[in-house]
TrEMBL record, chain A:
<dbReference type="GO" id="GO:0005524">
    <property type="term" value="F:ATP binding"/>
</dbReference>
<dbReference type="GO" id="GO:0000408">
    <property type="term" value="C:EKC/KEOPS complex"/>
</dbReference>
<keyword id="KW-0418">Kinase</keyword>
<dbReference type="GO" id="GO:0005829">
    <property type="term" value="C:cytosol"/>
</dbReference>
<dbReference type="InterPro" id="IPR022495">
    <property type="entry name" value="Bud32"/>
</dbReference>
<dbReference type="InterPro" id="IPR011009">
    <property type="entry name" value="Kinase-like_dom_sf"/>
</dbReference>
<dbReference type="InterPro" id="IPR000719">
    <property type="entry name" value="Prot_kinase_dom"/>
</dbReference>
<comment type="similarity">
    <text>Belongs to the protein kinase superfamily. BUD32 family.</text>
</comment>
<keyword id="KW-0819">tRNA processing</keyword>
UniProtKB/TrEMBL annotation, chain B:
<feature type="binding site">
    <location>
        <position position="314"/>
    </location>
    <ligand>
        <name>a divalent metal cation</name>
    </ligand>
</feature>
<feature type="binding site">
    <location>
        <position position="131"/>
    </location>
    <ligand>
        <name>a divalent metal cation</name>
    </ligand>
</feature>
<feature type="binding site">
    <location>
        <position position="203"/>
    </location>
    <ligand>
        <name>substrate</name>
    </ligand>
</feature>
<keyword id="KW-0819">tRNA processing</keyword>
<protein>
    <recommendedName>
        <fullName>N(6)-L-threonylcarbamoyladenine synthase</fullName>
        <ecNumber>2.3.1.234</ecNumber>
    </recommendedName>
</protein>
<dbReference type="GO" id="GO:0046872">
    <property type="term" value="F:metal ion binding"/>
</dbReference>
<dbReference type="GO" id="GO:0000408">
    <property type="term" value="C:EKC/KEOPS complex"/>
</dbReference>
<dbReference type="InterPro" id="IPR034680">
    <property type="entry name" value="Kae1_archaea_euk"/>
</dbReference>
<feature type="binding site">
    <location>
        <begin position="152"/>
        <end position="156"/>
    </location>
    <ligand>
        <name>substrate</name>
    </ligand>
</feature>
Length: 219, 355
């Protein structure tokens, strides 16, 4: 089933851990096709549940983002048979690519970290938890605003804990990807702390970090 | 490289951070001397690796005080056994390596006390070793995996680790309980024996399971959350024991938790572009986990490395192995710094024997 709808015009952009991402067109518009594949190592029932669940959840969360004005690609089509999600193609480098390519532009960097903080605040304000925040899941636009992508692990939740863990996942991605991550991530948090609700999330983030440090026990 | 004075290091390793007490002796041979800047790749000869495990009765976990008492009672005979197997006298040793942490306080202290005493008695340098780094270095030495993504799974740890810039960096880990702790706790709910280990008995039950019961599945980025699954499955076992067999519960628990671990390991491989996985730690003995990991690796053209019970379960030689590498680089722990610590993160160690 995976290969039946092979579009000869589509071009493989990248192969991730659980999906192949192609550039293609939908009704004449530049689009990205994200095709999830099944994993032989997991139980077939669990595999079906995860593949379907993540396909649907990604489409749902992207729509929810756009309803609330959070920058995310428009959903163009969901093809359940081939587990493929078609979304609008967003032009621009990922935040990771941008940071690696422009390491000396501190002002530009600060602007983008603030943009990331604002985007995450906006997303959390509408109870969307991304679930897999990394600097590879943010696309830098010409206007220095960020578009969030890859919502396969997302959920809808108003819980302070879920939002704090969302930020913690991003912090760990920063640490494992970028030197000088502390300064960069501090810029994200500063822009995130826009209201009392956000400050409550940041206080909880401190707890989540502490748990991480205390957890390391006997072997 | 080459042309240096040949050098041999014989290291004694003492490990007792949890309920296993291990004594190991390893010999590292540098035929061309210790290279000053290249990665250390000595010829590794295992001279002894003996172990004694403290098992509480079924349905009970182990208490630090009882474990420490076990280690105190067992360490002298075990040490003599290791020296006898190696055919060595104390004067043949070059250093005494011991586990500085992480682990349970009282057992760590009991073993460190012996290490300190031996070092002064035999006039040998002490080398404090991070337990997790011991697992990684032993796994690399045994399997020949060069630069793998490491899944470290045990009673107290669940981490996905990648090496970068002389540090073993933690890419992903559990947000709450460790995998081995979850399996042990569930074994206690089912009153499975603690001998040879609760996890081993879960694995045997799981082999006879046939029905997959849906359990929560929580992956966040490269981290996992395991506590919720345990609570869920405990409730099933306690409130509806007639609806599910223990075999099916063990099977479903393993299938779900291991799938999560394999998923985050694969994400780390994709993230750093690695094709190798090394599984270390006590839960790494689980053949179903090894099989699932191998399947994932094969699907992406990679390879999985795992060790057997001698090395994946806590042991003394892994402490000797990591300690001897640090010692070759000139590292030693002064007596006044020879304390132990319950918290000692993998990424706090400066791995100066690699480049």
């Amino acid at each position: 089933m995976a290969d039946q709808d092979q579009d000869p015009g589509r071009e493989l952009l990248r192969q991730g851990a659980e999906a192949r991402v192609y550039k293609t067109t939908v009704d004449g518009r530049a689009a990205v096709a994200k095709q999830r594949f099944s994993k032989g190592y997991r139980h077939p029932e669990l595999d079906r549940k995860l593949t379907r669940g993540r396909l649907n959840q990604e489409a749902r969360s992207l729509r929810r983002c756009r309803e609330h004005g959070v920058r995310a690609p428009e959903v163009l089509r969901v093809d359940k048979d081939s587990a493929t999600l078609y979304v609008e193609f967003v032009e621009g480098p990922t935040l990771k690519e941008w940071i690696v390519a422009t390491s000396s532009d501190e002002a530009g960097e600060a602007r983008l970290m603030a943009a990331a903080g604002r985007a995450l605040h906006h997303m959390h304000q509408h109870n969307i938890i991304h679930g897999d925040l990394t600097t590879s899941n943010m696309i830098v636009g010409r206007d220095s605003e960020l578009t969030l992508i890859d919502f396969g692990l997302s959920q809808v939740s108003g819980s302070v804990e879920d939002k704090a863990v969302d930020l913690y996942v991003l912090e760990r991605a920063f640490i494992s990807t970028h030197p000088d991550s502390e300064r960069l991530f501090a810029g994200v948090l500063e822009a995130y702390a826009r209201d009392d609700a956000a400050r409550a999330v940041l206080r909880r983030l401190e707890d989540v970090r502490q748990r991480g440090r205390k957890r390391d026990m006997s072997g | 490289m080459g042309g240096g004075e040949p050098r041999t290091i014989i290291a004694l390793g003492l490990e007792g951070s949890a309920n296993k007490l291990g004594v190991g002796i390893v010999k590292h041979v540098y035929a061309d001397g210790v290279p000053p800047s290249a990665e250390l790749r000595p010829e590794v000869v295992e001279l002894a690796n003996v172990r004694d495990t403290y098992n509480p009765p079924p349905g009970e976990g182990f208490l630090p005080r009882d474990v420490a008492a076990h280690h105190r009672e067992t360490i002298m005979p075990l040490l003599k056994q290791a020296l006898a197997e190696a055919g060595l006298a104390p004067r043949d040793l070059d250093c005494i390596c011991y586990t500085k942490g992480p682990g349970m306080g009282a057992p760590l202290q009991a073993v460190a006390l012996v290490a300190r005493t031996l070092a002064q008695l035999w006039d040998l340098p002490l080398v404090g070793v991070n337990h997790c780094v011991g697992h990684i270095e032993m796994g690399r030495a045994i399997t020949g995996a060069d630069n793998p993504i490491v899944l470290y799974v045990s009673g107290g740890n669940t981490q996905v680790i990648a090496y970068s810039q002389q540090t073993y960096r933690i890419f992903g880990e559990t947000l709450d309980s460790a995998i081995g702790n979850c399996l042990d706790r569930f074994a206690r709910v089912l009153k499975l024996p603690n001998d040879p280990s609760p996890g081993y008995n879960i694995e045997q039950y799981a082999k006879r399971g046939t029905k997959y019961i849906e359990l929560p599945y929580t992956v966040k980025g490269m981290d996992v959350s395991l506590g919720g699954i345990l609570t869920f499955v405990e409730r099933l076992a306690k409130t509806e024991p007639e609806k599910h067999t223990p075999e099916d519960l063990c099977y479903s628990l393993q299938e779900t938790m291991f799938a999560m671990l394999v998923e985050i390991t694969e994400r780390a491989m994709a993230h750093v572009g690695s094709q190798e996985v090394l599984i270390v730690g006590g839960v790494g003995c689980n053949l179903r986990l090894q099989e699932m990991m191998a399947q994932m690796a094969a699907e992406r053209g990679g390879k999985v490395f795992a060790t057997d019970m001698r090395y994946c379960i806590d042991n003394g030689i892994m402490i000797a192995q990591a300690g001897a590498l640090a010692f070759a680089r000139g590292f030693a722990t002064p007596i006044e710094d020879s304390w132990v610590t319950q918290r000692f993160r993998t990424d706090q160690v400066h791995v100066d024997w690699r480049t």
